[in-house]
Amino acid sequence: MRHITKSACPIELQTYLQENPDATWEQFKREHASKIVKETIINDQEGICCYCEVDFLDPPDIHHMPDFRVEHFFPKEKNVLPTGENAHLTWSNLLGACHGGSQKAFEKTPRYTAPDLHCDAIKGSEDWTTKILNPLNIPSDVEIFAFKSKNGEMVVSENCPPVLAELANNSIELLNLNQETYLKDARRVVIEVLEQQIMEESENQPIEEAITYLRQVHLYAAEKKKFFTCKNFVLKG
Fold this sequence. Notes:
Layout: H1 11-19, H2 25-28, H3 33-44, E1 69-72, E2 94-97, H4 120-123, E3 145-147, E4 154-156, H5 162-174, H6 183-201, H7 207-220, H8 228-234
């Protein structure tokens, strides 16, 4: 999980909500405006899931769906946010998540992990707003999570502010971010590749310069920021 900065609410969503203040997400997603909302969410999140940070895999053909869906941080089933706003369509409540290993469309890939689900596939309609970190409120300049190179396990960093430690640990546990058959192993591979690249790049230049170069390649220049937090941890220097 990492900090997400949302752009301004798409005007199409604003207009629809003004005209249909009690509309549900199911009603809105039939509108053309929902496509704009989804694209904005994906761009804001730099192409990765708000929880586990896998990339939103594009479908191989028209018979499959992308590994993306809109997640309501506060459950839309409650209809109204604590602020009194529409839980279905309030912009700050809309995030982008992967399918959490639940979709049979990905049965032939490591991502199909049912019944060992993760992210919002396991969260469902649970109200965890006070139990887990909200990606919109995660500090962007603080190390919250750390990762073990041996197996890709995600843990709470020793540098995590104490006030956030319980929420961080709950996020790992409740969202199953150490899902065994895909997430942990995928992060382990990422760590191994980065450590090998650090070693190779530092053969002909100071290690600080090697890490700076690799940070540019993997964290900033990459179109999608898959496993950004894990990569950032390995390449912190």
